[in-house]
């Protein structure tokens, strides 16, 4: 299917030469030829403001779809069908388990401090835990960098696992910055309705918890679309609330499946973490549980990133975020060594 790009940036199906060879852009009203040339310099006056704003169809129906929807079985099998995914599940959980122990200890201490207060003597542990915390940050950043590659490859229409990136401090920090920016933009907007609802309602009942669960699902969908925008844009500052809301509007009902998958995965991850932290009978059981927790988190993260990337690939014409692979996460440079898939 031939596609032409209007002057306003919208992608549309190339007009059929047998039917006059030109058509009207549903977004701005310009007359576009089969060769992509604009016949009208300005939007037609006959197209009203509301028609130019919303188009003739819903945004999810204005643009051609690419490929086919990803099946659930295919998505769940993705982390297990290639070498890099299996390596991620086999080699990284032991390191993450060992290095995350002081991180979780600090979190648990501040959450369950004795008598509800803060013990200054706990600060004496920081010099010993700080090296592991820094190591955990870089290893987690490297994992997030690989997950960003999974998302990017899915958005490019690839079905194989990406290559492992090189271990480079600046690249890892840039990848972390994109994840942090997505969290700031996503949580800053997505979590606001939840906070306001809890503050206004006060005492929460069963119906309120159902409403909060629905708001959490909406927030999760908004956050992960913000993550896709932050990763697929070369300039991650372009991932702002307006572009995120437009992307969700363009994808439409098809975006419901990734949102439900992410919400369910988050529920299982939180449940597993609480099970390990609060209900492990012995230290050995806690260690094994923490290892299993990281295996599961990495597995579901690869599934979510691949599903989100393939969703962006199907709706790339409407999103308009990228015309080619983002340059920021490309390591095809001379003299660099990285693992092959």
TrEMBL record:
Taxonomic superkingdom: Bacteria
Keyword Endoplasmic reticulum part of the UniProt annotation: no
Record-annotated membrane-spanning stretches: 86-110, 122-149, 179-198, 210-232, 255-276, 288-308
Keyword list, A-Z: Membrane, Transmembrane, Transmembrane helix
Keyword Phosphoprotein: no
Name this polypeptide is given: DUF4013 domain-containing protein
Species: Tautonia plasticadhaerens
Taxonomic classification: Bacteria, Pseudomonadati, Planctomycetota, Planctomycetia, Isosphaerales
